[in-house]
């Protein structure tokens, strides 16, 4: 079994040849691809051929970095005292031999839960789940991810946004939103003696850096050296930045935050106003001003009766909000006024989707029963300008779509947006597995979809017997048919990613961990309520 | 054993309650010992709470029957807004709630304020079921004792976790006063988010309060007092009242003397720390 691609994201930056770049995350790793030729440009953490035996794939970047590490082993290894500093946990004193003996599988690396980027596309921000870390990368020359910093948050991030003023907004599962600088100028290699002086720093900081790999996962001396360097760097960063998390959050719910969006609107006076919208497990959608006035709550959007899990502001009309969660419907809001404009019933769509989906259902007939609950797992806005039709007989308005995915449903619902709202019914885009993520190529009127290739379609628990289902799919919008259709435009990247050396093949994944990573939405439902 | 004891306790309680029959117009005040409950409730957990989907869907009429508008007057104008399935009921009240006693306990403050603010609706909000029931029975009995003058018609108590659902009950700028009297201290540092005062919760208090409205706080725990002062003073939507303003406010004295906790502290000769904060106007957008 290979690990499914839990997140995909098209970079705002382009490759040196002007092509699109796709970021994909499979388990603990992120990969950067050139969409045009399908080439793998870079991956993180670097793939070590010795641990991940069957896969000999090497990113140029990783190779380069390892080369650099080989050149200067002395300076990076440092004196023994430094090494102790690096692994601040108790097992630091364990001998190398013991470490090898207790070697856990490479699946112990923390899984990537969120991939985000700065509006200018220069920076990629990744959240890893188990260590609650926000990791900032610089995207260099449209081809290389350069790790800049790792900051461990007090609680698990559930949504991360980079604003145009280089601030990271991080919403977490404890209900708080923190604001932190994208780049911290003081993140520089701290000299060893300095680090030693700050003796009691481990008490003052809230979280200790948890390395992406441990000593137990990397076997060759060269890789261990690389890892130690990585840990050392990360620890220094945390030591430097950790205490800054002690300051108060800018927004807080006494609930679990599930999603967040940031938007700038132009007010009547022509000034720009920034808003933060936060959604929680207790049915709330809250509208706050953005910093420096994040203490002002402007409105609530009331109407959800179950948890809210996803927010989407259509880019063509950002004063509207589409939200979804544990209710049977989608909601469309005039959010500035807290007014509900539309409620779109998803129940018939989901029922049809599950019925129309292949044989597995008909044999047992149970998935429909299981799906008595609907959990919206994704909402995406797509705007397709009809530049293709050059004839000026009619000025065609762009095609506007709201795409909706529900947890454990192998159909993407594609709603048209007409006028000020959603038009029913949606088109069904059938895929062979449960939908995990969608990435929109704005200029190509195309989308990528990742599906769960580990579990059977319509099931959150049953593993597939066949291993052949490709995890990445591509569809193009056909203006003639007014529908999504299969496209051969992206065969190169589909081949690389879905091929036998594609992402997710380096580690043999643990099904339970996969499930926790990709199917967390329905778990937000409150159980005590049935009484 | 414990189970059995619990059973009999509950049975006693039920026998007492059914014989007490405040519904039928009893004027006998309820007795606290039949409403005992664990001292603390977890504000983070999913209690089986009932709360309105939105302030518009909150039905206040059962809480303040004397303030329900006559039928014709309340014929609501058809709203163009998509209603969320529940018919709006706020229209049918002649007044809106303006004062909230958060964590009201056994309701001493409400009962003391009722005759002092006869034209204002006050609500006590309490997370513990038994305690809420006690206050509700207490108010019914008081109303039944005063059928002619209509006293105590302006107070009510409902069960709520205010830390999660305050905005479900009140619109923006609806309240003129909030009381936070002797809140649970939650000593552990890790539990600070469980405190009823924090920078982020203060934003919610600011949201439901109108500019010029006052938050009243009192506690016998000096650390908690300092904590509340620090967090309200640090919040840009609030400014602390001067000591002169505080003493000039009748509510401060009532809060010191009439809350159950306040009385307890007096009996034990303990200290009471008070602080009041004014809700400021929101600044213009930057
Ligand atoms: C120490 S008592 C004070 C009672 C009353 N204010 C007095 O002064 O006598 C604190 C009360 O707050 C209630 N409480 C605690 N957290 C609450 C919450 N989140 N929502 C509503 N009530 C809460 C407790 O159940 C308790 O009755």
From TrEMBL, chain A:
SUPFAM superfamilies: WD40 repeat-like. Coiled coil: none annotated. Pathway: tRNA modification; N(7)-methylguanine-tRNA biosynthesis. GO terms for cellular component: cytosol; nucleus; tRNA methyltransferase complex. It is found in: Nucleus. Residues 92-101 have a biased composition (Basic and acidic residues). Keywords: Nucleus, Repeat, tRNA processing, WD repeat. It comes from the Eukaryota. GO terms for biological process: tRNA (guanine-N7)-methylation. Gene3D superfamilies: YVTN repeat-like/Quinoprotein amine dehydrogenase. Residues 50-113 are annotated as: Disordered. Its main location: nucleus. Belongs to the WD repeat TRM82 family. Required for the formation of N(7)-methylguanine at position 46 (m7G46) in tRNA. In the complex, it is required to stabilize and induce conformational changes of the catalytic subunit. This is Uncharacterized protein.
UniProtKB/TrEMBL annotation, chain B:
Pfam families: Methyltransf_4 (PF02390). The keyword Membrane does not apply. It is found in: Nucleus. Keywords: Methyltransferase, Nucleus, RNA-binding, S-adenosyl-L-methionine, Transferase, tRNA processing, tRNA-binding. SUPFAM superfamilies: S-adenosyl-L-methionine-dependent methyltransferases. It comes from the Eukaryota. It is an enzyme of class 2 (transferase). Pathway: tRNA modification; N(7)-methylguanine-tRNA biosynthesis. Residues 13-24 have a biased composition (Basic and acidic residues). Gene3D superfamilies: Vaccinia Virus protein VP39 (3.40.50.150). It catalyses: guanosine(46) in tRNA + S-adenosyl-L-methionine = N(7)-methylguanosine(46) in tRNA + S-adenosyl-L-homocysteine. InterPro entries: SAM-dependent_MTases_sf, Trm8_euk, tRNA_(Gua-N-7)_MeTrfase_Trmb. Its EC number is 2.1.1.33. GO terms for cellular component: nucleus; tRNA (m7G46) methyltransferase complex. S-adenosyl-L-methionine binds at residues 103, 126-127, 161-162, 181, 259-261. Forms a complex with TRM82. This is tRNA (guanine-N(7)-)-methyltransferase. It comes from Xylona heveae (strain CBS 132557 / TC161).
